[in-house]
Amino acid sequence: MLRLTQRHASELIWLGAAIGAGLLAALPLEIASLALAGVTLSVLSLLDLRVAVAATLTLAPLKALIETEATVRLPIDIGQVAFAGTVGVWLLKQIASERRVVLPRLSILLPLMAFIFAAALSLLGAESVGATLNELIKWLQMALMALIAAALCQQHGVGWLVGALLVAAGAQALIGIYQFAGGSGAPHLWILDYRYFRAFGSFGQPNPFGAFMGMTLPLALGASLGALSMASQSRLQRGVWLWRALGLSVAAGLIGAGLIASWSRGAWLGFAAALATLILLTPRRWWHGVVILSLCAVLLALGILGGVLPSALLARFSDFAQDLTGFQDVRGVPINDANYATVERLAHWQAALSMADESPLVGVGFGGYEVAYARHALVNWQLALGHAHNYYLNVLAETGALGLAAYLGMWIGLGALGLRTVRLQDAFRRGVAIGVVAVWAHVIVHSLFDKLFVNNLFLHFGAMLGLIGTLVAAVSSGTQKA
Q1: How many CB atoms lie within 10 A of CB 417?
Q2: Residues 434-461 as b or e (16 or more Cβ within 10 Å = b)
Q3: d(CA 421, CA 440)
Q4: Which DSSP string do the residues of 374-435 spell out, in sequence order?
Q5: Backbone phi, then psi, for 272, in 5-degree steps?
Q6: Residue 179 gets which letter from DSSP?
Q7: How far does the chain reach from its first CA to its final CA, in angstroms?
Q8: What angle do CA 379, 381, 384 make, to 5 degrees?
Q9: Among 433, 435, 442, 432, which Cα is nearest to 411's?
Q10: Would you give the DSSP letter of residue 73?
């Protein structure tokens, strides 16, 4: 029998490295760089799966940028490639260590799976089975990301995942700030008397970029408050927690600047709801939060009445009431520069209601809004924008009354479970949990204006589900271990 000695193994490794180097040298520079980065990332991921998760969260938002700008075309987007690699490494490590796949028990996934089941019923009336299956796969990926993230958080704590999420958002924020200051060059994004540009990061559009900033800023603020609280409680590790609080605060500042630079009214309104949630839940006694929130509301009202707040920011909300309460039949409405955005939004709302009227129980198929749009479009609005610019109407159109009821039930279930984490004794983990609950407040409000689960952002939402699912499990077990 041929026996592989240490010397032979070393020689084979060197031979493989030489062959690999030769192949890389023969490839074009861009492809060789991608291949080398992929190999390096794969090796590091095999050593520590957290590297794969962090890389996935960072690379996932590059989907739109690579599709429009890259010279090298990938068969599937970079986020899906990274996520597939993460799942593969996770399965390999599970089988190698446990001889089987062990899934963490997450009660937080029950409301999510109930919605996915209800959305799957829309296959019965789907305009496009392929589009519906594609959308269902995204939501299943969200659940799978939650399981992987929770499994790692149970082993290594929650701090690393908070860091990974904020690094991904911080990188996008830096790109957005550069674009805002003049690096965009897109004339249709001029704002503030042609002095600045609306930021869009690698998303191609400001609104989904603003959604990403708004989805991560509450987490950064909650974690920062938790770290500061730990610094005040711990004498031995006060310096460590102060440095962590500083790093988290810097991340929050960057992401906050990115949120402002997006100039996205929907993202701002979502963050206002998230900030109110943070203020309400941070004190240990709920009535303290109510008092502080009331005082903040009074100060805000005085600032508006006194003209203290910037007029440019207030102008962005001037048609807020019209968007929410001014719904009407916009067929035949004269279109001008002042009302274009509002009428366009209402036209897509109207198309969604027309789809729901056609198939009220199961809808036109999950993910099928754009496919069905041509038959329901208003005369002046033939171009489909991909979604209804109101995710609740979007879900109603695509999955019918059953799907919308399950979607609303999902949020009620997630909220009820998330609020249990307020009882956590560990100040940092409690701050993280409150931050994630505030993220949900952002998503609930921002969804009145946009579809947020685009450009692979559902993977980030899945990671947050795994994050807080771990904390919910800690509260339920009474161990406070996360």
Answers
A1: 21
A2: bbbbbbbbbbbbbbbbbbbbbbbbbbbb
A3: 14
A4: HHH--TT--S--SS-SSHHHHHHHHHHHHHHHHHHHHHHHHHHHHHGGGG-SSHHHHHHHHH
A5: -60, -40
A6: I
A7: 49
A8: 130
A9: 442
A10: P
Average pLDDT of the chain, as a whole number: 86
What is the Cα 382 distance to its own chain's centre?
29
Question: In the structure encoding, which two tokens stand for residue 393, read together?
Answer: 């109407």
Distance of CA 114 to the CA centre of its chain: 20
Q: Tokens for 473?
A: 């499990």
pLDDT for res 229: 94
Q: How far apart are CA 189 and CA 197, in angstroms?
A: 5
371/469 Cα distance (integer angstroms)? 35
Secondary structure of residue 268 in the 3-state scheme: helix
Can you give the pTM of this predicted structure?
0.89
Q: Which two tokens stand for residue 28?
A: 């074009």
Position 236 scores a pLDDT of: 76
Provide φ and ψ at 113, rounded to 5°: -65, -30
H runs (alpha helix) in 121-183: 129-156, 159-178
Q: Write out residues in the chain with pLDDT < 50, as ranges.
A: 1-2, 4, 481-482
Q: How far is CA 345 from the centre of its chain?
A: 23
How far is 148 from 45, CA to CA, in rounded Å? 13
- pLDDT value at residue 1: 41
Q: What is the pLDDT of residue 2?
A: 45
* The pairing of beta strand 196-197 with beta strand 190-191: antiparallel
Residue with tokens 């990403």, as numbered in its chain: 212
Site of tokens 């609303």: 408
Angle CA(242)–CA(243)–CA(246) in degrees, nearest 5?
85
* Predicted pLDDT of residue 304: 76
* 277/258 Cα distance (integer angstroms): 21
Q: Determine the angle formed by the axes of helices 206-233 and 427-446, rounding to 10 degrees.
A: 160
Burial bucket for residue 353 (CB in 10 Å: 0-12, 13-18, 19+): middle
Cα–Cα dist 463/442, whole Å: 16
Distance between CA 168 and CA 460 in Å, rounded? 9
Helix/strand/coil for 190: strand
Which residues contact residue 13 at a Cβ distance below 8 angstroms, ignoring those fewer than 6 apart? Answer: none
3-state secondary structure of 197: strand
